[in-house]
Structures are given as C-alpha cells and as structure tokens.
Amino acid sequence: MTTIVRPALAAFVVGLAACGTNTPTGTNSTSTSQTPAAPTGGWLTLQLTTPRSNDGAVQFVVSGPTIDSARVISYNGFATSTGSVANMVVTGQVASGTIGQIYVPDLSRTGEYQASVLAAAARDSYTLQDVSGYRAVLVR
Questions:
Q1: I need a surface site. Which of 58, 64, 121, 127 has the fewest CB within 10 A?
Q2: Number of other residues whose CB lies within 10 A of the CB of residue 115
Q3: pTM of the model
C-alpha cells in the first residue's frame, strides 16, 4: 500500500508546485493594473448651417461639462466662457461653415456638449430672423 501512496503523493506535490507564485494561476501572483490615462483636452469646432444668405449677426450658446475657453474664427465678434457655458456672437457676412471653437479639458466627453443658435439678424436691416432652420454643431 505504501508503494501506491507515494506515487500519488509525488503527483500531488508536483501539481502543487505548478501552482506556485511564478504562474498566472498562483495565489501570490502579482497583478499589473493599468493607471487610467489622463483626459486629453482640445478644441471642438463650432459649425453653422444657415438657411439664409443675408445673415449679418448670429448668436450662439454652447453648454457641456466644462468649457475652458472660447474663440471666434474668421468673423468679427466675441466669445465668452464661464464654467460650463460659452456664448458667441459673430458679425459680418455670416454664412454656413466654421464659426468658432471651444477648448474642453476632456475630448472623450465630446458628445456631452450641445450647441444652438439663439438669434440671428439680417445684414442690411438688422431684422431678427426666425432661427428654426439654423443648425449649430460641434465637431472634433
């Protein structure tokens, strides 16, 4: 009987050794956890689609988690940002295309930002336009 127990005991010891700390299944194996990457900030571009050819001024609002800064591109006007809201007004011969940019601290949250046109005025008469056909979008 001792001859049968020894081979079984030897097999058990070999199997136990295979589960040591140097194998992925060992109880003392160290795990390497990845530290999440820091958020990457960057500029989101505000684009306008207008149904009119006579816009002289357009007012926008952008909202989202955090907006660090805002700027107007290719037009006269101004942009401000406070916390999670940016306001822009552009003037001149306003047409569809790029209007401005906002800087956000985490580009992975781009989908959480919203842009809209608040008001538009005709170039020659400054008459307010119906903004129902206008569209403002943010793109990376």
A1: 127
A2: 23
A3: 0.74
Please write the tens of the pLDDT for every residue from 87-137. Answer: 999 999 999 999 999 999 999 999 999 999 999 999 999 999 999 999 999
**102 and 75 in contact (C-beta within 8 Å)?**
no
Give backbone dihedrals phi and psi of 27, rounded to 5 degrees, phi first.
Answer: -75, -25
Closest CA to 115 of 86, 82, 132, 137: 137
The model's pLDDT over 58-82, given as tens digits with 9 standing for 90+, comes to 999 999 999 999 999 999 999 999 9
Nearest to 62 by CA among 133, 25, 114: 114
Amino acid at 111: G
